[in-house]
Amino acid sequence: MVVQNQQVKTGSFAARGTTAGGGGTYVRKLLSATQTDLYYQISFKVISQAANTVNVMKFRTAADGPILSVSVNNLGQLSYHNDVAGTSVNTTVVVSQGAWQTLEVHLTIADTASQIQTWYNGVQVSAMTRTDSFGINPIGRVQLGENTPALTYDFAFDDVTVSTAFIP
Question: What domains, with CATH codes, occur in the chain?
């Protein structure tokens, strides 16, 4: 992940993750306190993507264990992977390439009664707004970008916000 000024939504700089079969491109932020209820919002732009799934954001435990991965799948659709249960949810929401998109995910950790709510460009995504089993470990880190090696993609990221309240 690099800071650059060629692909920017607002301001003068944004992050960009580019790889052609190389290593992952991501950053992680340790939260000041663990949370069981957290909102995470980003703006992102798919510049290019091969036929592989690319994570745009992840929720992780304080010990860096994966909880939830939100991605653009190999068909260019919004999806998520429950890293605790090992299950995936795909949507029919196609992520447009070459334009900035806004994604907000609200995750509440409550074992089998955990909740995920997702908004794409301000519209709630029904397939990604549901009860799911995300375990009992609270959120301690957030990740921006993809940590899996050997994929091919070019994504830009801007306007990243993490909050305990809805981000309008």
Answer: 2-163 (2.60.120.200)
